[in-house]
Amino acid sequence: MDGGRALTIEQQRKILERGVEEILPAGELEPLLRIAQSENRPLRVKLGIDPTASDIHLGFAVVLRKLRQFQDLGHTACLVIGDFTASIGDPSGRSKTRPVLSRAEIERNVHSYEQQLYRILDPDRTEISYNGDWLAEMRFADVIQLASQYTAARMLERDDFAKRIEDQQPVYIHETLYPLCQGQDSVQIRADIELGGSDQKFNNLVGRDLQRNAGQRPQLVMLMPLLVGTDGVEKMSKSLDNYIGIDEPPEEQFGKAMSIPDEQIAAYLELATDAPPEEIEAARGAQNPMAAKTALAKRVAALYHGREAAERAAEHFASTVRRREAPDEMPELNAAPLIEDNGKNKGVWIVKLIAAAGFAESNSAARRLIQQGAVSIDGERITDANAHVSPADGAVLKAGKRRFARLVMK
Amino acid sequence: MDGGRALTIEQQRKILERGVEEILPAGELEPLLRIAQSENRPLRVKLGIDPTASDIHLGFAVVLRKLRQFQDLGHTACLVIGDFTASIGDPSGRSKTRPVLSRAEIERNVHSYEQQLYRILDPDRTEISYNGDWLAEMRFADVIQLASQYTAARMLERDDFAKRIEDQQPVYIHETLYPLCQGQDSVQIRADIELGGSDQKFNNLVGRDLQRNAGQRPQLVMLMPLLVGTDGVEKMSKSLDNYIGIDEPPEEQFGKAMSIPDEQIAAYLELATDAPPEEIEAARGAQNPMAAKTALAKRVAALYHGREAAERAAEHFASTVRRREAPDEMPELNAAPLIEDNGKNKGVWIVKLIAAAGFAESNSAARRLIQQGAVSIDGERITDANAHVSPADGAVLKAGKRRFARLVMK
Predict the structure, then answer these.
(1) ipTM of the complex
(2) What band does A192 get if pLDDT is binned at 50, 70 and 90?
(3) Candidates B137, B142, B147; nearest CB to A173
(4) What does pTM read for this prediction?
(5) What is the spatial distance between Cα B146 and Cα B140, in angstroms, rounded to a whole number?
(6) Phi-psi bin for A215: left (phi > 0), alpha (psi -120 to 50), beta?
(7) Rounded distance, CA B175 to CA B177, Å?
(8) How near does any CA of chain A get to the CA of B107, in Å?
């Protein structure tokens, strides 16, 4: 409990609540922090880990970084490796994303995973356990005892079950046992808090019920928002290949971060970086999303590789994009005279730039080109015909497949 | 396979199908009998036994007597004692009829039970096993494998589950595991056929599915009708105290059989005795239900205690009823001259009897008395004013609470 000594309980609560989507029961975090203080013990903060994953990505890092905040305040991260279900797979053969793994494979996975975990977590305040150690030993009678604590109706209310039932897709009986496994983990490790993505709400609340039945104080449930993948549509995940891994080289991280849609910039800044609130606010509806995105990409790379590596990644990105897309020789366009700086706009109006480059015969033709997605600067597509941009000196303006211009900005 | 040698397969099928409510799949019994013949082996006919019961009653005997027919044709009765669930009870505390029993208690129960079983079954063709021997050993992973074979939707279609869900009563998840236990029993003992009451249809069909998944030929399911209890309303059961135990003294059996409603006489004859089809047919809408019921009661007592004991029970019943209800002294009424015997009626018209005894001033007053339920002969109430009766010599006619006459019938 040394870490939090300098801060009041209320200050601690504010730190811990930042970026959290939901706390259940609401308002219970501060009382729990007081209990830990008065009992002079660290809180046990549980996080379930799927051992079939091999890379930690920014989406999962959202939760891990919250866990690290707890550690920095003196609490214990209790990681529960879900080796039990991973060692069974899905016997109904329905889920392709749940391969059957041996204990040895799982331990190998977890070992390589640990190195990534400790890029975020403090190993000295981390406990790792495997739920197979208690679940695999349970007999049929124990399972019946466990299953007697929940009704079928309540279990089938879980969002994804309810949706499948509505779509007349099967929910197998063993699937109704998995949330109970996860809840039993909380009983076993005596969790004070369980962290998770917001899609874990139901499962984490099962833990509360089972703990209550076992005579324990039910865990507080803290849910983090889900980070959308680089495609801007689905939850970030390895299987959809829309992820940014924390162990990837800075150039990869930077490039992938540059590929996210503009609407996601603020969410990424908030969930995946340490950007201050003002920067996040400024990024919302920024007039110059490319600059905001470049700043985000640098922040991501810096978080896992340091500021210097991030700067190099940014330079590498710009030069690669230029090299990959642009011919060696191209006309230069001095865009500096086009810069507006009045109360309303700041930068160069993209329509004016296209017209000045001679890529379109009229403003409306330029507008069409932009709206068709045919226009980019340094590989960054611009689809908003009202956008005002501030390209770097030497940036490459491109229209269609073959028309290029190097922008001079001074 | 010696027992059935004298009979053709078709004759065997006819015997085995008698009194059966449903066979699933329909028409599969005969092919199965042929398979047993060609493989020169007895069929394994499974029956699940609840070890919390202590008395076998006529309702359960319906199934046991069918099982005995299989034994008489050379097949093996495979009794599976459900000690597994009995040793767990109902952890949700919902079911009061499922007490927790130790293995020792269960074995004591089953031992005293066996003596009753062997009043019906042939011990030489009976195998007894305890499902705890395989179910109790199953680990959580095995349970998941088992549960992966059924969807929640399909399980919750079971009549009693569906009804509870409709009534917004809880169905606990462990309850969805019990039919799977019963199905696993069929896999374990490699049942060819499972017998059961018609309320076991769903559970027995689960066995078919699990056997098919296990690479076995799915069992044939044979369902027997449920015998209504002596109250004429509910299924016969110990807990409702509407049962006739096969181990009860003949006088008890006789008296209880005499208490059933007239509408149940034919069903009892069919399901609980060896009465030939003609007698059952004649009992349907008999003009003289008292005589039919007396014959039924004698058949029941004779089945479990012999013909002589049954006759004594009948005499005991008549004399007890007379002693219990009638005063020592009462007027005599010679009813012999009132006997009709034409094509339409046989016996004494009850209205005429009441009038002759002076218990009513007119035929219509007599009719009213009868319809009010105020008239009985030897304790047997007569409510049909058109009934013709054939009382025993010395029988007691009673109207209301205080008017008695001893009938002379010769």
Answers:
(1) 0.74
(2) very high
(3) B147
(4) 0.75
(5) 10
(6) left
(7) 5
(8) 19
